[in-house]
Structure formats: structure tokens, C-alpha cells
């Protein structure tokens, strides 16, 4: 049990005194980058999904007809 208490004390000290926390401006900047990257990746996945769906539709039509 003493190890757990010591771990919590050391963790608190490290989080309050040794960690360099980003500023509000840096957080906003990072959030914008993440949002833009997420939108780009979503659009790429959408394009891949639509392309694969279109190809499969053509393939199935060629088998039926």
C-alpha cells in the first residue's frame, strides 16, 4: 500500500512541477490541425468507399447481364 501512496505523490509532483503544459493558444492551434486532418481523412475514406461501391456495382451488373 505504501508503494501506491508513493506513486500517487510522485505522479502529483511530476504533473504539477515537471510537466510543461501547453498554452491556450497552442491548444487551439493543435485542435484546428486535428480537425482539418480529420476532415481530410474522412473525405479520402468517403472517396474510397464510393469508388469501391461503384466498382462492385459494375462488377455485379456485368455478372447479371
Number of strands: 0
Q: Provide mean pLDDT, rounded.
A: 94
Low-confidence stretches: none
Tally of alpha and pi helices? 2
Oligomer: single chain
Name the helix and strand elements from N-terminus to C-terminus, one letter apiece. HH
Look at the helices and sheets and give the structural class. Answer: mainly alpha
Anisotropy-based shape = elongated
For the largest beta-sheet, the strand count, sense and barrel status come to:
none
Helix-strand blueprint:
Elements: H1 2-18, H2 24-64
Description:
The protein has 65 residues and is mainly alpha-helical. The protein has a domain at 22-65. Helices cover 89% and strands 0% of the residues. It has helices at residues 2-18, 24-64. The protein is elongated. It starts with a helix and ends with a helix. The model has no long low-confidence stretch (mean pLDDT 94).
Short overview:
The chain has 65 residues and is mostly helical. The chain contains 2 helices and no strands.
Notable traits:
65 residues; 2 helices; elongated
Amino acid at each position: 500500500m505504501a508503494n501506491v501512496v508513493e506513486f500517487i505523490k510522485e505522479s502529483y509532483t511530476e504533473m504539477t512541477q515537471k510537466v510543461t503544459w501547453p498554452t491556450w493558444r497552442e491548444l487551439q492551434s493543435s485542435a484546428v490541425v486535428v480537425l482539418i486532418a480529420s476532415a481530410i481523412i474522412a473525405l479520402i475514406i468517403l472517396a474510397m468507399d464510393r469508388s469501391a461501391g461503384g466498382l462492385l456495382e459494375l462488377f455485379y451488373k456485368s455478372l447479371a447481364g
